[in-house]
Design goal:
Elements: H1 5-12, H2 15-24, H3 28-35, H4 40-47, H5 50-59, H6 74-81, H7 84-94, H8 109-116, H9 119-128, H10 143-149, H11 153-165, H12 182-188, H13 192-199, H14 222-227, H15 236-244, H16 253-267, H17 276-283, H18 292-315, E1 327-328, E2 331-333, E3 342-344, H19 352-356, H20 358-382, H21 389-410, H22 414-458
Antiparallel strand pairs: 1-2, 2-3
Helix pairs in contact: 1-4, 2-5, 4-5, 4-6, 5-7, 6-7, 6-8, 7-9, 8-9, 8-10, 9-11, 10-11, 11-22, 13-15, 18-20, 20-21, 20-22, 21-22
Length: 459
């Protein structure tokens, strides 16, 4: 079957032909969507023609959400092929929501990038929509299952770092339709690097983040899978790692659980003797025990308390404010004190601390402002998507402006007041940008360190 000229132009990346064709026939792209099995955007995404992709998105942006006959969007195809520039262009024009469009077998673009080991693409997709990390396929597989099944260790390393960054390590224990966790699958495929990364002595992830004795649909633990119905383990090194992590055969689980129950009953009366560290571990946040809604409520309460305390601190600074002033020709007359000397004027309503030591007052206000504007930013983030969000933003902005003007009004001189007004403009922007930059930098350091450690261990 002869291909249409527009499809051939997409394969070659011929932007001029695209523009001429759409100019002569403005309905060309609409007809292709109705009649065709594939759009020119799918073809251009496959071949990585960035200029063609950019132009066709300008002409008809909705093509980026179309599924072809095989159940792929252009983003599915670009992610699978590793065309990171095309991926960025699609995400920039269509936002991160297209990361969650499900194609064949309910796979999203992130799944295909993991299957093909497209490390740079994985970073782009997760950054655009972190929620895609939790998506599963029609077979119940997570993106980590797919990275292991297709032996993409570098992709697995990058994904594991992003799971840690976004506090989603609970996905490690998600089971596919066969009841297998990532650990079951890694043991089944004898992937030593993955098992060592999860359970080895490098402590890449917290030990309690992964269930080493989870049972699959056949009633097998990961250690059972290693024995594969035989009497001896097929890989002694993997066996050693599993044993050090307290992995057991399914036949031994009942005995261990019974022993654990007995120990728990015995120690219930001794809870008052728990050490300080044990109490801290007990109250430590665990994702599987607390819902996201409860976490948001707690963070909102804390942020509101900090905002209230810091706002009050700027209105009532240490030492208070001057209650009155007595000025003669720009100076306050002080009588009956060391020979009737004069001192610079202290105006009523300005801070005593700022008048006495502007350096100490400046440091106090600067640190207090960091706490205030960070809490305001946190409140804004935690309430995003709620009803009346716009009205809330208006009120938060008004409070932030009031805070800035209050700082300036209480300052003992014009220069200090102007400095505080500048702070009230710069700090809200800084507290919104700096944390994300720090996280990105820390992520790069962790990935580099992790890869170096893995390379050393492998060699």
């Amino acid at each position: 079957m002869k291909k249409s000229p527009i499809m051939e132009a997409a394969r070659k990346g011929d932007v001029d032909f695209l523009l001429r064709s759409t100019e002569s026939d403005p309905t060309l792209l609409e007809v292709i969507v109705i009649n065709g099995e594939e759009t020119p955007l799918h073809v251009a995404s496959m071949y990585g023609h960035l200029s063609f992709v950019r132009e066709i998105l300008k002409l008809r942006e909705s093509l980026g959400r179309e599924l072809n006959k095989d159940g792929f969007t252009p983003l599915h195809i670009a992610a699978s092929m590793g065309h990171v520039e095309v991926v960025r262009e699609l995400l920039d024009k269509l936002s991160g929501e297209i990361c969650l469009i499900k194609g064949k077998e309910r796979k999203i673009p992130l799944h295909y990038a993991a299957m093909r080991g497209r490390v740079c693409v994985l970073d782009e997709l997760v950054s655009a929509n972190p929620e895609s990390l939790e998506e599963i396929t029609a077979r119940g597989e997570t993106v980590l299952h797919l990275a292991v099944r297709f032996c993409q260790f570098d992709g697995f390393v990058v994904l594991l770092e992003r799971f840690k960054e976004f506090d989603k390590l609970f996905v490690l224990n998600v089971k596919d339709n066969g009841g297998n966790t990532v650990l079951h699958l890694a043991v089944q495929k004898r992937q030593y690097e993955v098992i060592d990364l999860l359970l080895g002595s490098n402590n890449t992830i917290p030990r309690d983040s992964i269930e080493v004795n989870s049972l699959n649909s056949n009633g097998f633990t990961p250690l059972d899978v290693l024995f594969h119905f035989g009497g001896e383990p097929e890989d002694p090194e993997i066996y050693q790692i599993l044993c050090k992590s307290a992995a057991v055969r399914s036949r031994d689980l009942d005995t261990i659980q019974a022993t654990t129950r007995t120990e728990n009953e015995t120690t219930q009366s001794e809870e008052s003797l728990m050490t300080h560290k044990q109490w801290l571990d007990y109250f430590k946040y665990k994702k599987d025990r607390v819902s996201p809604n409860e976490v948001r409520n707690v963070l909102l309460v804390i942020a509101i308390l900090i905002a209230t305390a810091t706002y009050q601190a700027v209105l009532s600074p240490p030492g208070g404010v001057w209650q009155e002033d007595y000025c003669i020709n720009g100076y306050c007359q002080v009588t009956n004190l060391k020979g009737n000397k004069t001192k610079p004027v202290y105006y009523a309503g300005t801070t005593i601390m700022g008048s006495k030591s502007w350096i100490s007052y400046g440091i106090f206000i600067f640190l207090n402002s960091i706490g205030f504007f960070t809490s305001i930013e946190l409140i804004s983030l935690l309430t995003k998507g709620l009803p009346f969000y716009l009205e809330l933003q208006v009120s938060l902005t008004a409070v932030a402006l009031t805070y800035g003007f209050a700082m300036a009004a209480l300052s003992p001189n014009f220069g200090l007041g102007l400095f505080f007004l500048v702070i009230s403009v710069i700090l809200p922007i800084a507290v919104a940008k700096i944390p994300s930059l720090i996280r990105k930098h820390a992520k790069k350091i962790r990935i580099y360190s992790l890869r170096s450690t893995t390379t050393t261990t492998t060699s």
